[in-house]
Amino acid sequence: MVEVHVKVRVCDKCKDVNRPVRSYTLTEGERVVKRDLCDEHAQPVEDLMVDDVSIPVQAPAVAAATKTAAKKAPAKKAPAKKATAGRKRGATKTLTVEEIKALRQPQA
Ligand SMILES: [Zn+2]
């Protein structure tokens, strides 16, 4: 007698072995939740993921905030930049727009 063990991933909701499942990883802060869901039970998640696409379109305010965040990014890195300070660049705080552009453009 042969015993065969087969591992099948099933939907976490309906546990239906005949339904193909997809794996989803949801994160919220430090929480990470993994779910295997069939098409039917993944629908709410899929809906949310579709909605997500509209976020950049809906809010110019977000774009402005992102721009601000991008400007602040070098300052935010400052604490971790002890190594950078060792590069003898002195004042890393004040970069002109031109300098930032120059840094961003690969000058190959
Ligand atoms: Zn299901």
What can be said about this structure in brief?
With 108 residues, this protein is an alpha+beta fold. It has helices at 39-53, 55-58, 60-77, 82-85, 97-104, and strands spanning 21-28, 31-38.
Question: Care to describe what's here?
Answer:
It is a single chain. Helix content is 45%, strand content 15%. It is α+β, with helices and mostly antiparallel strands and 108 residues long. The protein has a domain at 7-51. A hairpin with a 2-residue loop joins strand 1 (21-28) and strand 2. The structure holds zinc ion. The site of zinc ion has 9 residues, from strand 2 and helix 1.
Distance between the termini: 68 Å
**What would the average pLDDT be, to the nearest integer?**
75
Total helices: the number is 5
Strand order of the largest sheet: 1-2
Radius of gyration: 24 Å
Unreliable spans: none
Question: Which class best fits the helix and strand makeup?
Answer: alpha+beta
DSSP helix fraction:
40-55%
Shape: elongated
Total strand segments: 2
**Main β-sheet: number of strands, strand sense, barrel status?**
2 strands, antiparallel
Elements, N to C (H/E): EEHHHHH
Strand content: 5-15%
Bound molecules: zinc ion
Note the main attributes of this structure.
108 residues, alpha+beta, 5 helices, 2 strands, elongated, binds zinc ion
In terms of topology, how is this protein built?
Elements: E1 21-28, E2 31-38, H1 39-53, H2 55-58, H3 60-77, H4 82-85, H5 97-104
Antiparallel strand pairs: 1-2
